[in-house]
Amino acid sequence: MKFGKVQDPNSIDFTLPVDNKNTAAVLKKEGKGDLSVYVGCAKWNKQDLKGFYPKGTKDELEYYSSQFNSIELNATFYRIFPEDQFKKWYDKTPDGFKFFPKLVQNISHLKRLNEDVQPYVDKYLSSVIHLKEKLGTIFLQMHSNFAPKDFDRVIKFVEKWPKEIRLAIEFRHTDWFNDPVIANELYALLESNNITNIITDTAGRRDLLHMRLTNKEAFVRFVGANDESDYDRLEDWMKRLVEWKGQGVNQIHFFVHQNIEVESPLLSRYFINMLNDNLGTKLNLPNQLSDDLKLF
Predict the structure, then answer these.
(1) Residues 6+ apart with CB under 8 A from 221
(2) InterPro entries per the record (predicted)?
């Protein structure tokens, strides 16, 4: 993912901000519960993850899902797949695997949550539900020029979304975060409707690190800078997630992107190892990658 890419990562202060003052209050609600952790990449195709798949791998998804327990499914942004495709993906993956699909662009970027969006929502959901128990949180990514002037569209969309299906939203326009009044109204809307507030960590858009959870799910999209600092950043995230777990987070969904996606599995492996050490998880460590991926 190239969103937020900068020419010189060393010019960026990658320090994680302190939590929004309301995050702790959200995490205290209704007890702590058991912790579930899902970590994955954004894509599974061999072209993007060259060097990750052993020679002779016939089915990339089958192999990928034997190494990771989840995938951030970005392919669903570009078109609505027929239900048979979701059934095939379901059948190719093991028990416990989860897909976190992005809502189709007709909803977010073309119709922009207007009054004509519902048929696309209905069609999308009628297909994606065939992932059954392997369906993780669906996420909506709004265009960076979608501003608070259309807040009424967000309200209508969120309130109409079926409550039994988990939804997370990523906003990118700066005014959603830089105007405290708007930000608080947005967070209150998400919290009252149990919608997850995605946190995106990317070099060129530090304002997206709002650190405001709206439920007990931490959904983090981490975008590496193809730099040694990526490992330090992941260590900082590990510390924050340990704190959140202590406060009541019970779902961690963490997806690793890179400007050069081939390096994503390497970073993911490093992060998974820390999770197992610090949170007591027993996530599979993806197979050791080929030497040409060990760049730092």
Answers:
(1) 1, 72, 170, 198, 199, 200, 201, 202, 255, 257
(2) DUF72, UPF0759_sf
pLDDT tens digits, one per residue of 34-73: 999 999 999 898 888 878 899 999 999 999 999 999 999 9
Q: What is the DSSP letter of 286?
A: P
How distant, in Å, are the alpha carbons of 114, 122, 171, 174 from that of 151? 11, 22, 11, 14
User: Rounded to the nearest 5°, which phi and psi values hold at 35?
Assistant: -90, 130
Query: At 57, which amino acid appears?
Result: T
Give me the DSSP letters along 130-163: GGGGGB--EEEE--TT--GGGHHHHHHHHHHS-T
Q: Which residue has the tokens 């960076």?
A: 144
| pTM of the entire predicted model | 0.94
What gap in Å lies between CA 48 and CA 58, rounded to an integer? 16
CA distances in angstroms from 46 to 43, 52, 90, 205, 272, listed in the order given: 9, 8, 19, 29, 21
Cα distance between residue 278 and residue 17, in whole Å: 21
In tens, the pLDDT along 262-275 reads 678 889 999 999 99
Could you count the other beta carbons within 10 Å of the beta carbon of residue 2?
A: 11
